[in-house]
Amino acid sequence: MKNTKEMKAKKIEEAVFKVIMIFSSSLILFVLGLIIYSIFEKGLRSLSWEMITQTPKGGYYYGKEGGVLNAILGSLYLGIGSTVLAMIIGIPVALFMNIYLIKRKRMLNFIRYLLDLIWGVPSIVYGAFGFTLMVFFGIKTSLMAGIITVTLFILPIMIRGIDEVLKTVPIGLIETGLSLGSTKTETSFRIVLKQCYSGVVTAVLLSFGRAIGDAASVLFTAGYTDNIPTGLSEPVATLPLSIFFQLSSPVPEVQQRAYSSAVILTVLILMISLSSRALSKRYHKNRIS
Amino acid sequence: MESKTKIKIDNLNLFIGKQQILKNINLEIPENKLTVIIGPSGCGKTTLLKCLNRLTDLYPDVKINGSIIIDNEDVLHTSTDVIDIRKKMGLLGQRPYPLPMNIYNNVAYGLKISGRRNKNALDQRVKTYLQTVSLWDEVKDRLREPASKLSIGQQQRLCLARGLAVDPEIILADEPTSALDPISSEAIEKKFVELKQNYTIVMVTHVLRQARRIADYVVFMYLGEVIEHGPAEEVFSNPKMERTKNYLAGAFN
Description:
- The complex is a heterodimer.
- Chain A contains twelve helices and two strands.
- By secondary structure, chain A is mainly alpha-helical.
- The mean pLDDT of chain A is 89.
- By secondary structure, chain B is an alpha/beta fold.
- Chain B has a domain at 5-98 and 168-248: Rossmann fold.
- In chain B, the strands form two sheets. A six-stranded mixed sheet of chain B has the order 6-7-8-3-9-10, with helices on both faces. A four-stranded antiparallel sheet of chain B has the order 2-1-4-5, with helices on one face.
- The two termini of chain B are 32 Å apart.
- The mean pLDDT of chain B is 88.
């Protein structure tokens, strides 16, 4: 008798959790769909060829003419620049943690804790920090200052992202590499990174998304301009900021253009994400389970 | 028939934290013989094996003293080049870990990192070692496929070929057949018996029948100590120590 009661309770539990899971998943999908729908619904109306091929005419605040090419290029320069810089610093750090510090468990936990802590720092704080540095060194708002600030901002995200992937590498694989006579560096780059290729790509993409989508960290550091940047020492426009400025304009047509900029930003991220995923598939097949 | 000593272990102690894993190990492992280390789980067999090529370096909080002499060189000494030591030994683990690359590159990996890049020479050696482990006929048409596509038994033979390709003198094997089906296990065992002509093989196993089948020299370990060691026939037919007798009789596992 008791047995059947328990069985019944388990079945109810199972059903309830299934409903909760399905509900939560649909809610997420619904919200995501709604965001994309509202951006595209409003944005496509004023999206034109001009938008993506011309620089603004009549100022970013009031201008209804021209496009946001300055911000598209600026965002790409800034996003790619800081992602590449963060990779150059971040991948070695993550490898160092997982191959060289593998026996220093307590130190590792401490580093992870610190990284998680600075991950939580809001991007405006990075912006303010970058600005303080710029004032100290007498640097003006520029692509360079923006890249450095955004790199600082995405580094903890990238390092912890790659770190979580590298943590899944079986110790046996590292032992295998070493016992074949490879140095730790060879084991890191020729074996461990190959094994984790797709995960590392995901972590890098996540960081790129944060880099290209963040407005607060570039507000004081990269500045804004209607011109296409021609050098590292010049200010650059970015899409998030152009959305911000356009949305705060009193002119409805300019407000409308903010949604077009959002569409461009979304499509940009989507394109880069899709192409890198296709790239990472090539290596995924070699992964050992 | 007496044979030369390849590995000489003297007063080896290993601690992890405060726990002593290996206690005062003294052993001489004969050259070109198949030495089998037996003993119940958790007795330190694997740790002893990993000391030999210093994979114990990866353990947290590890302290080792004593010496392991291979060709007049102390493996444990800090001035010893650990890369050289490891190139002298091939390691076969409990489960196969193929490298995340294709079959060809798995075998060629060790050669490539040693700076050998001549395409024809590499091709030749890859073929030779795949033939040595009787895998060539099964994979010759799909050398560019990922190694992870092979069956576990094939993967283990691939790992053996990969280990042999770097020209080691010693093969270390840590329960190399424990994850394999009976047919693949037999294939590995047969290979070992062939290979001992040219290599010193040290194998850890907890399968007594396997040890009886192939061992030349047996080491029995219990709770971190070497209880008894000697030629296989002697230890199996006439064990001197009470605990060895009990273990061989299946009193504990």
